[in-house]
Amino acid sequence: MMFNSILAASFWLGMLWRKSNAAGAWASMVVMFVATVVLPFGMPLIPGVRTSEYLGKTTQAIPVSRIYTAREMDVQDRERAIAKWDRLNAAAMAEGLRPELLKAGEKFKKEVLLPKKSIFWSEGFEFQNGKSIGRGNLKVELIALDCLGWDLSKNTYSLNETLTFLFRIFIPFLVLFLVALLTQAEDKDRLDQFFGKMLTPVVGTHEDDDHEMELTRANPNRFAHLKLFPNSNWEFRRWNREDWLGVGGACLAAVSVVVLLIVIIGLGS
């Protein structure tokens, strides 16, 4: 699913660039298939890879301060912490300041220690006979970044996951872009017909659509005035009223679903 989504995003951008060609598309597919399927799932099959010390790198345990609204359970936890501190203080063993009393509904700060997590393995580690064994598939994108000198252990786990996502979004298009620049472009007349057909709106009946396509075949550049970047190789066009209404309606529907979910969750609390 992820592989298909990545390729879809890459090809969507590629289809709006006049220099895109078959060689660039095939190169992008092959590179991403190797990077997201062959290497992540194939390398762990090699003996010794799952127990590799290098691939056993983890993120650092990072302390994070977060603000919470106190609930009754938090109040009880704080009372137990105060009682424990008092006992230790009576034995001259208490450390730090005495915790303050907490009331329900108050805001309070809590220090959370983010645990260490595997950088390169999708499912972390398991330990057998004192050895850590990588689980799941390898994140080859992060291995590449680590080999380039980026110390990923200093990042949070979420940042490393974001880097993986960004790698899979931009690399396919970058490969397509570079290969297309270095290889022969498609025929201009063929491109004019292709993009003219893409910009021809569906107007209603088959007869009306056939008539519009006849006009486009006769003059494939009749929609050139709609280009957002005239005289460029990019075929982004200006939005019209229907585009704005469609995107606005889709965003409104998405927000409505989120709001409905929040309301339903609130009913159960």
Features:
mainly alpha; single chain; 269 residues; two-stranded antiparallel ribbon; 9% strand
Neighbour order of strands in the largest sheet: 1-2
Distance between the termini: 34 Å
How many structural domains are formed by the residues? 3
Structural class, by secondary structure, is mainly alpha
- Roughly what fraction of the amino acids lie in strands? 5-15%
Helix and strand element order: HHEHEEEHHHHH
Mean pLDDT: 84
Query: Helical percent range?
Result: 40-55%
Low-confidence runs of at least 5 consecutive residues: none
Total helix count? 8
**Shape annotation:** flat
Instruction: Tell me the total number of β-strands.
Output: 4
Give a concise summary.
This protein is mainly α. The chain is built from eight helices and four strands; from the N terminus they run ααβαβββααααα.
Explain this structure to me?
Helix 1 (2-15) runs antiparallel to helix 2 and helix 2 (22-42) runs antiparallel to helix 5. Helices cover 52% and strands 9% of the residues. The strands form two sheets. The protein has a two-stranded antiparallel ribbon with strand order 1-2. The protein is flat. With 269 residues, it is mainly alpha-helical. A hairpin with a 2-residue loop joins strand 3 (125-128) and strand 4. It has helices spanning 2-15, 22-42, 72-90, 140-147, 157-182, 188-199, 206-218, 241-267; strands at 62-69, 107-114, 125-128, 131-134. It has three domains: 2-57 and 118-182, no CATH class; 62-114, no CATH class; 188-267, no CATH class.
Furnish the topology, listing elements before pairings.
Layout: H1 2-15, H2 22-42, E1 62-69, H3 72-90, E2 107-114, E3 125-128, E4 131-134, H4 140-147, H5 157-182, H6 188-199, H7 206-218, H8 241-267
Antiparallel strand pairs: 1-2, 3-4
Helix pairs in contact: 1-2, 1-5, 2-5
